[in-house]
Amino acid sequence: MPTILVIRGYRFFFVSLDRGEPVHVHVEKGDAYGKYWLKPVRLARAKGFRQHELTEVRKIIQKHEKRFVRHWNEFFSIK
After folding, report:
1. I need a surface site. Which of 8, 25, 53, 76 has the fewest CB within 10 A?
2. Band (7; pLDDT cuts 50, 70, 90)
3. Alpha-carbon span 74 to 32, nearest angstrom
4. Distance CA 14, CA 16 (A)
């Protein structure tokens, strides 16, 4: 599970078994967990985050979306 970004206590990462799914990123902070699709950025599922945290996470993902997509393509060797 490669970590792509850690910011404000949130860890953004990929799961190697997700190769066949659309581009997305996982996020965790403490016991809270979420998954966001990247094209377009939207919440897939979450557990333990408050609404304001989900809003903050979405904004972080939007700001770093190109970075996440680039790392996804590199990690899964997509040209």
Report:
1. 8
2. very high
3. 27
4. 6
